[in-house]
Amino acid sequence: MATLAGKTILIIGGSSGIGYGVAKASLLSRASKVIIASSSKAKVEAALVRLKGDITVAGSTVEGTASGEVVDVKDSKNVKELLEHVGEIDHLVLTSGDPVRTFFPDMDLDANKDIFDVRFWGGFTAAQAAKIRPGGSITLTIGQILVKPKKGWSLTSGVLGAVDSLTRGLAVDLAPIRVNVISPGLVKTEFLDGFPTEMRGELEKHANALLVQHIGQPDELAEAYLFCMKCQYITGQRIEVDGGGKFI
Ligand SMILES: NC(=O)c1ccc[n+]([C@@H]2O[C@H](COP(=O)([O-])OP(=O)(O)OC[C@H]3O[C@@H](n4cnc5c(N)ncnc54)[C@H](OP(=O)(O)O)[C@@H]3O)[C@@H](O)[C@H]2O)c1
């Protein structure tokens, strides 16, 4: 059974939600070094404290270490500096995502063209600048809206489609480094706090309707990211971890 023993993993977006789950699962899977990065220094520091506690509670012997970095993926210079600073890594995971913007038809296009900055340009720049060791991987993140858009989400689904395509392009460009993308359905994270109030009321209803009858947990999503890191025979793929959400 493959583990992450001896591996260094950088998780951009690791200070909360799914990325935090990947950081915890990586340490429990024997990663040597886990680096979590995001734009808020306070969030990175709080996540490191929480991580220490969670790993202790998990009761396993964790050999690896966790550290934090501050990066704003909207700033390509900042992203390149981070990748230069961390040096060689085995796996790069991107779960960084800014709050959802739902709007149509009254949206101000000029004020929203930056919607590609975090998920698309952030992912592209990090993939371009990362120094990944042989056998390593990059895992990006999109969302179920790609295949099942909701009313008002067309721009968001467009961004996710761009990242989905980017994944296959990068898998070819960076081969033999493997590049995959995870597409989560609804997951219980801080991200949901940014949803419009009326939508949050719908979440419980949605959870009950899902085939698995519960909202996803970050730990459940982390399994897919670990698989993409460990399995040497997967690249250019999208894995949908959505509790069967696309069937309802
Ligand atoms: N939760 C869901 O139901 C769900 C469903 C489908 C898809 N997704 C996608 O999955 C990804 C992760 O979601 P999540 O639920 O884990 O969200 P989350 O808990 O809000 O985590 C997002 C992470 O991204 C970081 N981030 C945001 N802007 C950044 C920036 N400019 N530079 C660097 N880091 C930045 C945040 O930290 P800072 O604030 O410190 O920067 C945080 O660590 C997102 O792309 C989201 O769209 C989530």
What does this protein structure show overall?
The chain has 248 residues and is an alpha/beta fold. It has a single domain (8-247), classed as NAD(P)-binding Rossmann-like Domain (Rossmann fold), CATH 3.40.50. It is built from eight helices and seven strands; from the N terminus they run βαβαβαβααβαβααβ. The protein has helices at residues 17-28, 41-58, 76-86, 109-112, 117-129, 154-174, 197-209, 218-230, and strands at 8-12, 33-38, 65-70, 88-94, 131-141, 178-184, 238-241. Helix 1 packs across helix 2 (41-58) and helix 1 crosses helix 8. The relative contact order is 0.16. It binds NADP nicotinamide-adenine-dinucleotide phosphate. NADP nicotinamide-adenine-dinucleotide phosphate (NAP) binds next to helix 1 and helix 5. Belongs to the short-chain dehydrogenases/reductases (SDR) family. Keywords: NADP, Oxidoreductase. This is NAD-binding protein. Pfam families: SDR.
